[in-house]
Structures are given as structure tokens and as C-alpha cells.
Amino acid sequence: MDLPINVQTKKIQLDSPNITIHYPIIEQFSNPDIQHRMNAKIISTLNELLLEQNYHSPNLVELVASYEIKTNERGIFSLNLIVYSFTGGAHGMTVVKSLTFDTASGNVLTLPQLFKSDSSYIDTISNEIKKDIQKWQVVVIEPFDTIKPDQDFYIADNSLVVYFQLYELAPYSSGFPYFPIPLLDLQKHIAPNTPLDKLLPFT
Smallest Cα–Cα separation from 85: which of 25, 17, 153, 152? Predict the structure, then answer.
């Protein structure tokens, strides 16, 4: 299904500790099984993040969960789940987890699934990030060499956006380093007849 899917926001609010959770639920999808698969993955991933962010900790002071839809067209639904928590100390901690779905199957797309198995997409992406680190003068904890095979990413504005968690590449003060790479720059690596292939301009 290439049309945008219908997404509704659900909310959980607790006062003690201060917890506010906004999360997405897919509704009125043409295939109920696929709808259930995507919703189940969203909920299970959010639950993992909440546990990681001390949802049940007696030291929890505040927790805020939200989401951002990055792509919802042409068979791809890409979103970020964002959870901030504060348990005391100098500052709280935020984690971001992205899910990119193939809406024809309801499956989550991994980075390797987007590209040809024999392509050097990891090298290409890593080299683009190195250029951006230098161009934008990004302060890094240690010299950057290469992305991980399962590096965090989402798809937005006809670009693959690769990013790093807090402290993974840069100090906390730098926030989340995001590196958008236009799909046209990755075209030779993209596997044909895949959801990502459909997002290429003029295809």
C-alpha cells in the first residue's frame, strides 16, 4: 500500500512520578494483520525504551515520551520514538529509536535490507559522515571510523538520515548528531524493487 497510513496519537498521563507518554497507533489500515504487526512492534519497542529509561525506578522524577513521523508515503512508514527521563543529577537522559516499516508487509526494514548485498554502502555512508564531521566541525569523543552494520537511521525528505545516540559519537552537550545523506548519492547501492527504491526521485 503506497498511500499514507492513518496514525492516531494515544496518551498516558501519570502524576507521581511525572510521566507523559504520547505514542502512535495505526488505524483503518487496509490489511488488519499488517496493521496489528506494525502496532505490536511500535508498542514493544516503546516498552523496551521505557524500561531502559527507568520507567519502574523508584528514583524516577520525570519521564516524557513522544514520537515524530519522518516518512509516510510510497510504501514506507518511518518514525522516531523519543524518551526522556530524569532521575536526579546534572541532567536527564534521552534515547531515540527509529522504526522504518515496509507497509506492504508490516516488516521493519534494517539497514542491510535497504542495499544490495554486495555493495559498499557502509563505506559510502561512513565517508559521507566523515566529510560532514569535518565540514560542520562536529566535536567527537574519539575519531570516527565507520558506522555499525545496525546503525540507527530513519528516512526523511528523500534522504537516509544516520544518527548516533548521546555519548556514542559526541559529548552530551552536542546532542544527537544527525547526518542526512540524499538517496541519489546512494542510488548505486540501493537494492532494486525495494521500498527505498520507490523513494528515489524520478523512479
Answer: 17
